[in-house]
Amino acid sequence: MLPDLLRNVSFFQVLFRIDQDLAETCRQAGCPYCQGPLYYAPYLRKPRGGPKDLPEEYQKRFSLCCGREECRRRVLPPSCLFLGRKVYWQAVILVALTLRQRRTTGVSINRLMRMFSISRATIVRWLQYFRSVFPVSASWQRIRGRVHAAIGDHGLPGLLVDSFLDHSTDSSAGLVACLQFLAAGQAR
Ligand SMILES: [Zn+2]
After folding, report:
1. pTM of the predicted structure, to 2 decimals
2. Where would I find the H helices in the chain?
3. Residue 77 alpha carbon to ligand 1 centre in Å
4. Distance between Cα 37 and ligand 1 center (Å)
5. Per residue of the chain (188 residues), what is the pLDDT tens digit?
6. Is residue 123 a contact partner of residue 96, using CB atoms and an 8 Å limit?
7. Diameter of the chain by CA atoms?
């Protein structure tokens, strides 16, 4: 079951390892502004909604900082774990919205609030983000051509998540593949 993944430390470990690779690839590419060397400068975010016993290491957002004195800019590598500055794990947001958006079996907002201990305002904000902000974002524009035409700008992210689940052996593999796909959109 999809929500069970959110209590599974090894699921988050998989995402952490992917983020580690994404960050290292980004670091090796050097500063996009001045080609200077990039250094790790992570910050602790402690997002909500995941397993209680998650190692603190996984709760750090990989971030890079340019080593050139006159630049010093921050570079944020793509991430499967985090969605912008949102206070919940990206996987939690995707799972909750997918359960909500399923055409025939979609669960009510009240039920989601109980399942995830999330406020109505937060769920409504996520839905609004995927309705009006994400579809016009550069991240989505970069990758939308790679998904089936039936997955338009409407019904995100549920339709996208379900299409990955349909093409995977289990829900863990499907959700990981979807998160990796979304991370590919963030890559410059
Ligand atoms: Zn630089």
Report:
1. 0.95
2. 9-29, 90-101, 109-116, 120-128, 138-143, 158-166, 171-186
3. 14
4. 7
5. 899 999 999 999 999 999 999 999 999 999 999 999 999 999 999 899 999 999 999 999 999 999 999 999 999 999 999 999 899 999 999 999 999 999 888 899 999 999 999 999 999 999 999 999 999 999 999 999 998 888 888 899 999 999 999 999 999 999 999 999 999 999 86
6. yes
7. 56
| CB atoms inside a 10 Å sphere around CB 131 | 13
| Residue whose tokens read 């579809």 | 135
Predicted local distance difference test score (pLDDT) of residue 81: 98
Place of tokens 């969605």: 83
| 83 CA from centroid of ligand 1 (Å) | 24
What is the rounded CA–CA span in Å between residue 179 and residue 91? 8
Question: How are beta strands 74-75 and 64-66 bridged, if at all?
Answer: antiparallel
Count how many Cα atoms sit within 13 Å of the Cα of residue 111 in the half-sphere of its side chain: 10
Cα 30 to averaged position of ligand 1 atoms, centre (Å): 8
Return d(Cα 161, Cα 180) in angstroms, integer. 11
d(C-alpha 85, C-alpha 66), whole Å: 21
- The alpha carbon of 24 is separated from its chain's Cα centroid by a whole number of angstroms, namely 18
DSSP state of 73: -
